[in-house]
Amino acid sequence: ADKYFRESVYDAYIRDDWRLRPELTINAGLRWEYGAPITELFGRLVNLDIAQGFTAVAPVVASNPIGSLTGNHYPTSLIQPDKFGVEPRIGISWRPFSGSSVVVRGGYGLYQDTSIYQTTALNMAQQPPQPSPSKSLSVQNSSTCPLTLANGFVACSGTTPDTFAVDPNFHVGYAQAWQLQVQRDLPAALVMIATYSGIKGTHGVQEYLPNTYPIGATSPCPSCPVGFAYRTSNGESSREAGQVQLRRRLRSGFTASVQYTYSKSIDDDASLGGQGPVAAGAVSQSTASPAIAQNWQNLTAERGLSSFDQRNLLNVTMQYTTGMGLGGSTLLEGWKGRAYKEWTVMSSITAGSGMPETPTYYAAVPGTGVTGSMRGQTTGASVYAAPSGLFLNPAAYTAPPNGQWGNAGRNSITGPGQFAMNASLARTFRVKSRYNLDIRFDSTNVLNHVTYSSYFTTVASPQFGLPSSTSAMRSVQTTVRLRF
Known about the structure:
Layout: E1 5-6, E2 9-21, E3 24-35, E4 39-40, E5 46-50, E6 57-61, E7 86-94, E8 103-112, H1 117-124, E9 164-166, E10 174-186, E11 190-208, E12 229-251, E13 254-267, E14 304-305, E15 312-321, H2 334-340, E16 344-352, E17 356-357, E18 377-378, E19 397-398, E20 413-414, E21 418-432, E22 435-444, E23 452-455, E24 467-470, E25 475-483
C-alpha cells in the first residue's frame, strides 16, 4: 500500500477498407503499441544484479540502478524497454460464387501482451534492501535452520533475502493469430459455419530456480546463491483448432446452435492457463507467479499440453418463445392465450473431454523451500488402468530416483470429462401501459448431474486417483422485477 507505481502507455494505428469488387472486401491496418516497464515514484523496486552463470547475486535498487557485480547501468524500472510493438492486422471477406450464400472470411493479426509488467513490478516492490516494511526470505525448514511462528525469517547460510529476479532484457510477449472461415446458408433457416484457427505465442514467461538440484544429489556449486526465482521471456506456445457450427436462425419462435470444436494446445510458457507457487511477496493467489520449471537446466522438458487444452468440446444452445400478442388476442384467445404467450425457454449444454493435469511430487527443492515444481517418475504402467474405486492408477508413478528429476511430463494426465446443463424460463407481463412485470427462473446444473472437475495427482499420496472436487449442485434462482 505504500508503493506508487507509474507507467506510460502509447499507441497509434492506421486502418482502411478496400472494396475491390462487390464480392471482395479487404480490411487492413497497422498498430504500434508501447507500454513502458513499470517504475515506482521513489525508486523502491529491487532486482538482482547477477554474475555470469549465476555464481553470485547482489540487489540493485531502482533509486541507484548500477549493478555492484556487473557494473551494468539499469533504467529506473530495472527492465530495459521493449519498444518494437508493431502489430499488423488484415481481414478478407469474399463471396466466391455469384448468387450463392457461400462466404469465405480470413484474417491475421499480431497482438502484444501489454499487461506483462504488473506482476513483475509487484514482486520487485517487496524485497530488501529498500526502506520499507517489506521483507522476504525463502528458507527450507530443517534441524539446522528451524523456522517457528515466532520467527519465520531466519537468515541461514545459503539463502538470499531477495526471492525474485527478472531478466533485465525481458521481452514483451506477443501472439500471432490467424483464422479461415466458410459460411453457407442451408434450407429450413439453417446456417453452417466451418472455421480453422491458430495461435502462435512468442516470448512467453518462463520461471526457474537457478543453482538447484534434485533431492539426493550433491550441489554442483555449494557457494552459488539459491532460493530465488528467475523470470525470463523465452517461452513459446501454439494452438490450432477446427470448429463446425450449425445454427438455426429464429423461426417460428425457435432458434438453436450446435457447435463442435477439436483443438490442441502445446506450450512451455508457464504463465498460460494457470498459476504456480505463490511468488515472493505475493499477498494472494491472484498475484501468484507462473509455474516454476522443474529443472532449470532443461527448460525444454516443460513443453507439454497447455493446462487449458481441451481436445473435444460440444456446445449446444436452444431457445423457444411461445409468441406474442397484447391481451392474448392473437391466435389463442382468452385466459389460455394470456397464460401461454410470451414465455421464453432457454437451455445450454456443454460437454467436453478432460483437462490436462500434472503428476506432481510434493517435496521442497533442496535449499529453496519451494514445493510443487517437481514431478513423479513413470513406472511404465498405464495411468488409466485404475483399480476398483479409483479413476487413476497410483502404480503408474513413483517418487523420483535419488539424485534425479522425475521424468513424468507436465500436464501428461487427462482429467475427468466435463458436462454441464443450464436452463432458464422467463416472461414479461404487461400489467398496464407503463408497468411491466418480469419473472425469470434460472437453474444451473438443472439435471443435478455430478461431474468431477479434477483428480488428485500428487504422487505417493493415498488420495492419488480420487476426485479432488466436483461441480456445483443444482441451484435455482427466481427473479421478479417491476419496471415502470
